[in-house]
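PrgI family protein
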Amino acid sequence: MQQFVVPQFIDIEDKIIGPITTRQFIITLVTGFFIFLSYRFSDFSLFIVLTVIWSLIGGSLAFIRVNGRPFHFFLLNLVQTLRRPRLRIWNKRLTTIEVSSEMKMTTASVAHTPVVSARTPPPSSRLSELSLVVDTGGVYRGES
């Protein structure tokens, strides 16, 4: 039988600069780019506010983990959960034609079901012997 190597630690990301992973590095670069754009196209007070906002967003996406998973997975799961309905109701309405065809199918399957004969219970002497075997854990095998 051929053996295969099972990959382990598949959720570990590659580290490129010290403890920084590729994903964290790219998120930090994009955040830095947005901070640079806010520096170029806004006055100083707005630049400070935007820098704080971009740093919080980028830092949380890059470095915060929720239940051992990256923060962006948490945000995606949150959005998916909020888009789903909170209460699921099964509301299947059948027409009279569907109900009658379903009834015909069930009566046809019941009519063709073979009758199972009931077994006769063992005689009382055999029943007491079997209960003795069960009670003794199989040590007593019977008289025959």
